[in-house]
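User: Sequence in, structure out. Go.
Assistant: Echoing your sequence, followed by the structure tokens.
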Amino acid sequence: MSRTLKITLAYDGADFCGWQVQPERRTIQGTLADAIERVTGERVLPQGSGRTDAGVHALAQVASCAIASPIPARNLVKALNDVLPTEIRILSAEEAADGFHARHAATGKTYRYRLYRGEICPPHLARYVSHYPFPLDEARIEEGAALVEGEHDFTSFAAVDPERGKDDEEVSAVRKIVSSRWERQGDEFVYTVEGNGFLHHMVRNLVGTFLLVGKGTIAPADLPHITEQRQRSAAGPTAPASGLWLVSVKY
């Protein structure tokens, strides 16, 4: 008899080609599947709460899978960490209700984007932040961030996902942003956004657009108009993956 596991994991995504398993490429999902097979002897494909891109990191990603192994969930944490590369750590494993799916059951997510504003980015931070030492009006960015809160069609901030098949769900681009804010934390200017879901590249595209606000290219008041256009070309460029972190998933 199989049982469903809910696994919470953290990872440094700098040297991975994203979450989604890909042939001949190092991915988080594929590496986790290999570890589960080594520990239990079963080949399963753990389903994540979302598909983080290449270079994106996670403090608490959630994955689910069904296994038949009787190994207690608490023992799986140590066993998996013993065989996983150090860039991936299992934080917890617990039995979940039958049919639990990490993505389908999620009700909200929080992401963080770290922008390093100092002139010289320390080497030990370079993999985990986006370095932007150029002039920015941070007050304008803070003002603009609140203007994307609420329920909107975020097509203007969504990239086409090449990994999404025609049978995948999430056809609608409507999402609800509960909180959107920037704040200074020492040499870093940090964006934290919480919502009921996010489209492909949505957070990075929002950040790229906020940078246009900070440079004076567009005004904070332009953000609602950009959203209303529902055209990717209306928004700013995609910010680098290195600064993005999946902070938590709500259920």
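User: And one key feature?
Assistant: The domain at 108-250 is CATH 3.30.70.660 (Alpha-Beta Plaits).
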